[in-house]
Design brief:
Elements (H helix, E strand, L loop, with lengths): L9 E4 L5 H11 L3 E5 L14 H15 L4 E7 L2 E8 L7 E2 L2 E6 L2 E4 L2 H11 L8 E5 L5 H11 L11 H7 L3 E2 L2 E3 H7 L12 E7 L2 E8 L3 H15 L2 E7 L7 E7 L3 H14 L8 E5 L3 E7 L23 H9 L9 H11 L6 E5 L2 E7 L5 H6 L4 H13 L4 H8 L3 H13 L3 E4 L6 E4 L5
Parallel strand pairs: 1-2, 11-15
Antiparallel strand pairs: 2-4, 3-4, 5-6, 6-7, 8-10, 9-10, 11-12, 13-14, 15-16, 16-18, 17-18, 19-20
Length: 447
């Protein structure tokens, strides 16, 4: 605690007042934090009363008024004793005098309504998709139920498509005559009348300018179908003729899309069933010249890290378990927690770079990359502009030598040697030959 400056996780108080309770509540609702009693706002340590009676009084006040148990210690700073009160972030929310606060920088602010709704759900064993909606069975599109029953026959052999009420009740989508939120998204005729943000958009971009945009509404099944149809319209495809037998009938045509359709399907399904439906915004899919990204509101559920998404059978914590379970019964997902690894495998099998998973500002994004040697990707790997120019040269000419590198970049022989060595160490180029015949060729990124 050498640097005594207030921050998102540190509050300084010259003496105890009830204002400390507000700070602790905001800390608990954000990332956790520490309050030092006996330190002025400018960081001057003045000390405070630290006897057992005072510590017990503070602890009892916090527990009774906030309902949380803090860590309370006495420490010596600059020769004076101060009280250190630390709280951890909690699941759910801690109210203070009827307000729900969050810490932003060095101040406490009221939690936005959509964030509060999410946090209140976290305190409850109920999930958003399991909450009852105001709609009843009259809102159900029975044709959607019949199509689902056909898909689910393998995993639900006793399903009866002619009994939609029983089917929805067994799936947990109809409770006491009311559709759950999941039931609305999956089987209602016009879900967007109740949930206007439950839609999906696909845009085509050229040099960051949008040149085409389509919006998909309806049930989640309809949004998935619409997205896949749109992919087939806007993505490039290569046809390869394969001969299985030396006859005309033995000729087979294989389609190779610029991005594996099955991988895109997994990404769209993940976005549909794992997005945060309490948040503003819709699912956005953007096709650029060198990449395709799938963005959805809602970060990873608590308990899952980005690095775990690349590990088979990583923990599965579905934000919307009813949606996930229904998609599973329909045969559209194999096992919970395997979608991201399947995406990686499908892209690798087609010789594409591994997609990137990112989480930012309460959202989640999957980025599919078409060209492992796109300048943006090379910059992200730490390459300088000379090295990027050389990689593009090798893409066009198949190889490069030290002499060609120097001519291309106007760098010294030693500089060229170091640049090329770094490209080899990063796994982008591979050295071939020896001595004066040494040259460099591309090596697939990720090999």
């Amino acid at each position: 605690m050498a640097d005594l400056r207030e921050s998102e996780t540190l509050e300084l108080k010259e003496r105890w007042t009830d204002k400390v309770l507000e700070d602790l509540a905001a800390f608990a609702n954000t990332r956790g934090g520490t309050c030092l009693i006996g330190v002025r706002k400018d960081g001057t340590v003045v000390g405070t009363v630290t006897d057992d009676v005072e510590l017990q009084r503070i602890a009892n006040t916090i527990v009774s008024k906030l309902g949380i148990t803090p860590s309370i210690q006495v420490k010596e700073l600059q020769g004076r004793e101060v009280i250190v009160i630390k709280v951890e972030p909690i699941r759910g929310v801690v109210p203070y005098r009827g307000r729900y606060l969050t810490r932003v920088g060095t101040v406490n602010r009221d939690m936005p309504p959509e964030q509060l709704a999410r946090r209140l759900l976290e305190r409850s064993p109920q999930t958003w998709d399991g909450l009852s909606s105001p709609w009843d069975l009259e809102a159900v599109d029975k044709e959607q139920v019949i199509r689902f029953a056909q898909l689910a026959r393998k995993r639900l052999p006793d399903i009866e498509p002619s009994e939609p009420e029983r089917t929805l009740q067994n799936l947990g989508l109809l409770q006491e005559g009311r559709l759950t939120n999941a039931g609305v998204l999956l089987f209602a005729r016009r879900p967007q009348l109740l949930f206007p943000h439950a839609r999906l958009r696909i845009g085509v971009f050229k040099e960051n300018q949008i040149i085409d945009s389509h919006e998909f509404e309806g049930t989640l099944w309809q949004q998935l179908s619409g997205a896949m149809d749109r992919f087939r319209q806007i993505l490039r495809v290569r046809f390869d003729i394969q001969a299985t037998e030396p006859t005309l009938e033995g000729l087979q045509r294989k389609e190779t899309w610029e991005y594996p359709l099955e991988a895109l399907r997994e990404a769209v399904i993940n976005a549909l069933i794992h997005r945060d439906y309490t948040a503003q915004g819709d699912i956005q899919i953007r096709l650029h010249e060198d990449r395709l990204q799938v963005w959805n509101p809602g970060g990873l559920p608590e308990g899952i890290r980005l690095d775990q998404l690349r590990v088979p059978d990583h923990p599965s914590v579905p934000r919307n378990p009813l949606l996930s379970r229904t998609f599973y019964y329909a045969g559209l997902i194999e096992h919970w927690g395997t979608g991201t690894t399947r995406i990686l495998e499908l892209c690798k099998a087609q010789g594409l770079p591994e997609p990137e998973f990112t989480e930012q500002a309460g959202s989640f994004k999957v980025v599919f990359l078409k060209d492992p040697y796109a300048p943006e990707r090379l910059r992200a790997m730490g390459l300088n502009e000379r090295q990027i120019k050389a990689v593009l040269y090798v893409k066009e000419h198949g190889r490069i030598t030290n002499r060609e590198y120097r001519a291309l970049t106007a760098i010294s022989d030693e500089g060229a040697r170091l640049d090329l060595k770094q490209l080899v160490e990063k796994g982008i180029l591979e050295a071939r030959g020896g001595g004066r015949s040494t040259h460099y060729v591309l090596r697939s990124i990720g090999d």
